[in-house]
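Holo prediction — zinc ion.
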Amino acid sequence: MFIIAELQKEDNVKSFVLFMRTRNLLLCLVSICGLIFAASCRTEQAQTESPPQNIEIEQKTQPKTIADDFAYPIGKTEIITEAKDKKDEWYNAQDFGENNHLGEDWNKNSGGNTDCGEPVLEAANGAITYAENAGLGWGNVVIITHKLENGELIQTLYGHLQTISKTDGEVKKGEQIGTVGNADGKYLCHLHFELRTENCLMWNKAGAGYSAERNGWLNPSDFIDSKR
Ligand SMILES: [Zn+2]
């Protein structure tokens, strides 16, 4: 009897140990699952708290004000027009499309470097997208993004600037953004002026200034004359 009782006791102890081991294993698995779940929740939270970068870029380049009125970016902007070249104070020395030119070269009638340092004015309401020295052949460049009344975006580019007055934020039509320059001494002073649509390959970039492929570029004077 004593031996049987001892054997039963030993069996009970073994069962108890087995039970405890199984229980501990299950508890351990539950804890690991909990940790993995908590970590995945934290990752999801982190992803939802920081907006994707492209939204930030989109917000930066979306102007707050509508560009419903345009003017030439030089001289007395309200009266300057390509139609009066040589009859008003400024003229377009190299037209859009001439020699594969992607913009217009605006010079003062008085010639040479007499236009160095003349104010370059914003063609319409918009937001500054790019304002820096774009290197050899360009000098300082400013690009402004404009939102038209129909919601479409366009960009105007001002090249070879001697100085840049403003590098960030919103601008109003007629506001000074820089001065006429010579691309760090490469040319006689003039303003290289481009106008681009959103499908332009060089959107947000300075680009090349000349190309046989002009899809995405518009004739700046024709556009401005149609919007004033
Ligand atoms: Zn040019």
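READOUT: The radius of gyration is 34 Å.
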